[in-house]
Amino acid sequence: MSELFDAVDALIASRSALPPPVERRRLRQAHGLTLDEVAAALQVRRATVSGWEAGKTEPRPPERDAYARMLEQLARLYPADPNVAVPATDAVVPATPAGPAAPASSAAEPVRARPEPTSPTAEPANTALRPAGPVAVPRPAATTRPASSRPAAKKTVPAGTPAGGADQRFANGPLAVVDVDADGEVLAYCTGGLVLDVSAKSIPALVEWTLREGRLGQSKLSGPGKDADPLLVLTEAACEYYGLPVTLTDEERVAGRLPEGHKVIKQLARAKWQLTKRGFGPWARIYRPAQGSERTCVQLCIPSWHALDSRHWGEAGQLPPAELARILSVYASRVMTPRGSTAVTGLELMTALHPPTRASEPDATGRRTSEHNPGSLGKDPVDCAPCEAPDGHPLLADLPRFHVRGPGEKLFEEAYDWARPMTDAECTLRYLVGIDVNMAFAAGANGLVVGLGEPTHVKGPVFDPKLPGSWLVDLSHVDLSRVKVAKDTWAELDASLLPSPFTPKGERPTGPAWYATPTVAYAAELGYDVAPVEAWVRHDNGRYLDGWYNRLRDAYLATMADLGVHADLSPADFLAAMDGYRERDPDLATVVSAVKATVKGGLGKLRERPRGEGWKPGQPWRALARPTWRPDIRAAVISRTRINLHRKIVKHAAFTGQYPVAILSDCVVYAAGGTSPLDFLPYRDGKPLPGGFKLGVNPGLVKHEGTQSVLWGEEVRDRFDAPELNLARYIKDGTVTDIDNGE
After folding, report:
1. Cα–Cα distance between 608 and 625 in angstroms, integer?
2. SS3 labels along 65-114
3. Rounded CA gap, 156 and 494, in Å?
């Protein structure tokens, strides 16, 4: 009889109840346990525990009972927040067709749901909607898995995980991560923990499945715009299954694509599918020509081909499919479905929010035509002004081969890279404290009026701060030792301790130079006359980047709030919330990095340089054919960002007598008596200096970048024999390298 009891106990243990994967991770992290510690206690591999928390695999006896016991004890110590929805375990998605209810005894073997085809002529779908938590899967007896072998689908999802789109055409979300399990079954991991069975056996069939059965995609972001094409992310296992290499050869990597003779490309051609000019690379677009307003296109992302740059996406490309699907889905729901790198997506977001054309009003016959969409950059590229053209541009083809343009010939609006030796008084202080402006370039784009059309050349213009353009003007007379800090208030400053606001290196200009409108306007704001010699101005203008800024700001703030950093925190609470925020949810921290990279990369794409292509100086390159190749807009944003920072520095110096030691882009370093920004930022009754630096998560406010000792700074400069070495580059962790990661 005891053997029977043991067998019953073992049977019960084999089905020990477990919380959903996201709750397993929360409980472990709440108790400060690492994956290695849990793995050691349960005598399994670290990757095994990671798989349990990702929902990719489920524990089996005898580990399952012990794991359930641990989670049960942790749940008593750290109850779940009742205001946060968590996906249920063992949930079953009912079959779409109506029919008699299944008997209670069959609950362990749910009927697979078959979503309706998106086209009335499409074949019935073979797609099984798999729940996000463990459910039994009907298989032959020899291969039947335990009830916990599948993730369960439920539309209540954890914080930071978007639910499926309201548009039923895209009911399964904007994208799917396609993987192949140990049994050779192809699975598509979608938004909110949903997993679909994929019946396609080849890449052409996979494209067909996506368009006819997958219900993937994203609704347009603007009225005249277009819906986003579905995105499929192929894991290494999926690449092998579909006949693609797991990694590219050196030759293929340099070319950025597979060779034209590859068998998968031939399969696509036989099935009448086409590739864009960039071919079958890390981000491939597979399409057929549009029929009327109907687009037929699927995009592929292949992480093992370095589609997800680790500088911006961290280790996302190596994560289990469910985790990767979550990261990309959050990004897609808050920014847009990725269209390539973060830089490409940043640029595409501008166009998605301001499509170049729209449908006209109907004519007498009721027919509509395509017309220019006001407020957009249009569908045709425009030439920049000669001063705005980067070296090698066709507009400069007549210049001597080795001619170097100076500031009187070339617009040079770039971010700060400035530093100075510390004063004796600063050396008596103990610390160097760095503060960093949140989403600085996004804040610089907010409300900025930029040119929409072609530039107009003007001789001897009267400066207009509301007119975007490039101005040739002498600002060498602006003296920072006496400047206006308010309408009628002048301040006396130590100009030797301040960078010039007019040059990236902080050097005072020596004669006429080209500047964007925000830079010239700041000279006037400081109380000095400006008299441009000539200008290239844009009378057709508008606040083109406002919607772009708003969407990226909202994405950033929403994700930071999910990480526990809210916009209404007091300065001290904000600093505490920022401490270790990335460890609270590494997946969402990855989304934050990607959002910030989207800002910087998108602006950088406005002046994209040649990328190979056999280009020679004086010849056009591919990016010049885009309406969004607009170096003037990039220059205006950088100009305004640099000026915004300088304005805060001047206000701070006038009020406190403190001056920056180093500035790198959006990071400023001050000498201070303590380790916190609160040791030198002038807060009174919790309120910051008007117009100065303010701690907070919103774009344009600042956070703590890092603190090092003054002795560290002096030692580093002595070691490199560089009194003006830019310490802002290394203030974050004190590690001295030649790499600027842009943070």
Report:
1. 11
2. HHHHHHHHHHHHHCCCCCCCCCCCCCCCCCCCCCCCCCCHHHCCCCCCCC
3. 59
How far is it, in rounded angstroms, from Cα 576 to Cα 560?
14
Q: What is the pLDDT of residues 573-615, one digit of tens each?
A: 999 999 999 999 999 999 999 999 999 999 999 999 998 778 9
Which among 574, 533, 566 has a CA at the least distance from the CA of 678? 574
Q: Comparing C-alpha atoms, which of 296, 327, 356 is closest to residue 586?
A: 327
DSSP element (H, E) containing 646: helix 631-656
Note if the pTM is more than 0.70: yes
Question: DSSP characters for 29-52?
Answer: HHTT--HHHHHHHHTS-HHHHHHH
Q: Give 306: exposed, middle or buried? Use CB within 10 Å, 0-12, 13-18, 19+.
A: middle
Q: How far apart are the first and last CA of the chain?
A: 67
Q: What is the DSSP string of 197-220?
A: E----SHHHHHHHIIIII---B--
Is the CB of residue 517 less than 8 Å from the CB of residue 468? yes
Which helix (H) or strand (E) covers residue 332, if one does? helix 321-334
Asked whether the beta carbons of 275 and 285 are under 8 A apart, the reply is yes
Q: Could you tell me the two tokens for 4?
A: 């029977």
In this predicted structure, the answer to whether residue 41 has a pLDDT above a threshold of 60 is yes
Mean pLDDT of 291-312: 90
Tell me the pairing of strands 294-301 and 231-234.
parallel
In terms of Cβ atoms closer than 10 Å to its own Cβ (0-12, 13-18, 19+), residue 289 is exposed
How far is residue 736 from each of residues 417, 668, 722, measured CA to CA in Å?
16, 17, 13
Comparing C-alpha atoms, which of 333, 341, 243, 335 is closest to residue 299? 341
How many CA atoms lie less than 13 Å away from 430 in the CB half-sphere? Answer: 5
Residue 387: what residue type?
C
DSSP 479-514: -TTEEEEETTEEEE--GGGS--TTSTT-PPP-SEEE
Report the distance separating Cα 521 and Cα 464, nearest Å: 8
Residue 465: CB partners within 8 Å, gap ≥ 6? 517, 520, 521, 524
Q: At 298, which helix (H) or strand (E)?
A: strand 294-301
* Separation in Å, CA 675 to CA 54, 432, 533, 651: 38, 8, 48, 22
Cβ-based neighbours of 594, under 8 Å, separated by 6 or more: 312, 313, 331, 335, 342
The pLDDT mean for the chain works out to 87
Burial of 590 (0-12, 13-18, 19+ CB in 10 A): buried
Taking a C-beta distance cutoff of 8 angstroms, is the pair 374, 356 a contact? Answer: no
Chain centroid to CA 381 = 26
The 3-state DSSP class for residue 28 equals helix
